[in-house]
Amino acid sequence: MPFLEICAFSLRTALLAAQSGAHRIELCTSPSTGGFTPPLNDLLTLKAGFPSIPVNVMIRSPAPDLVYQYSSEEMDIMGAQIEEFLKTGEVDGFVFGFVKDGKVDVERCKRLLEAAKGKWCTFHKAFDLIATEDMERELEVLKELGFHAVLTSGGKGTAVEGKEMLKRLVVLSGGLIDVIVGGGVRKENITELLEGTRARWIHSAALGEGGFDEQEVEAMMDVVEGFGRGLTWKRPSR
To answer: What are the structural domains, with CATH classification, of the chain?
Structure first.
């Protein structure tokens, strides 16, 4: 069965997404930047209202450049953020990612994976900075590092445009890492993406004409749950 993860850029949208039935929340701030680390209290308030919903927290400081290069001091700050969230006992996982010279930045990733102490870790859409011809190789690197998931649009501007690469990545994942399909996912295209990629997780900010739209979440949940009831869920062949 597929699942729906909602990217919430504020406490308000996270609460609405949880109320609308989302399977998981990615909690962050700053939608214009792709997301930064949210306030600790946002997590605590969300979990107080919806204790059973899994919440993965974005760990990302304002980027000094466009390729997610951070100094040792900035990495220390992000490691400390992970420690603070872990102390609450409420966080379910973390979302972060680093790319260097068109490849997964292994050393920076290791630093935060170690700080996360075995919690679920998703490599975020920095993966789409990697050339599409190198994505299959770099997916293997993420597996070896121990990431549980990677969020990607298949190297394209939207998941629909990257559908063929996403399908290949799902096949190559071998069930050892989740390929989370994200990038312009809406109620109008979620069926196409589920059928075309057979990914287990779909990721959306659930944006309507006026911003976040809880009815968008409900509509996508109807589709996702329909797939779970009506289809035998198989990974695609090559």
So the answer is: 3-228 (3.20.20.380)
